[in-house]
């Protein structure tokens, strides 16, 4: 298993950060690993909703079939998915309001046989992507 996390204080209220985070049409503007949603984001953002995402990590393209696992508007969005080679992926966005600002934490995990072969490299690449994504998201809403 490889686990990664990153957080950033964004100079915008949680509602504004949440609106950007859940605007699936704009993911390409801030999410460093995102390339496309082949059928668009989830039709309705709710627990159990599913959607496919094309991503690129460590230079490799991958399609992940996501399911929304936990949803608490303006607080938590957790998704879990299955990628190529039996890799399971989890991403959790946690928003903590701080007056006119918000701390956004992203936690990710990768499990599966293929992960153990490249866990260190995957951890480094994913952590860099999370930090870049937070910087870009902050620039969009801050």
Strand tally is 7
CATH architecture descriptor name: 2-Layer Sandwich
State the end-to-end distance.
34 Å
Number of helices: 3
Determine the CATH topology.
Alpha-D-Glucose-1,6-Bisphosphate, Chain A, domain 4
Largest sheet: 7 strands, antiparallel
The whole-angstrom Rg is 14 Å
How many domains? 1
How much of the polypeptide forms β-strand, as a percent range? 35-45%
What are the low-pLDDT stretches, counting only 5+ consecutive residues below 50?
Answer: none
Principal-axis shape: globular
Q: Which CATH C-level class is it?
A: Alpha Beta
List the helices and strands and how they pair.
Blueprint: E1 2-10, H1 14-21, E2 34-36, E3 50-57, E4 60-72, E5 76-82, E6 88-98, E7 101-111, H2 113-117, H3 119-141
Antiparallel strand pairs: 1-7, 2-3, 3-4, 4-5, 5-6, 6-7
In short:
With 142 residues, the protein is α+β, with helices and mostly antiparallel strands.
Question: What are the main properties of this structure?
Answer:
142 residues; 25% helix; alpha+beta; 7-stranded antiparallel β-sheet; 3 helices; Alpha-D-Glucose-1,6-Bisphosphate, Chain A, domain 4
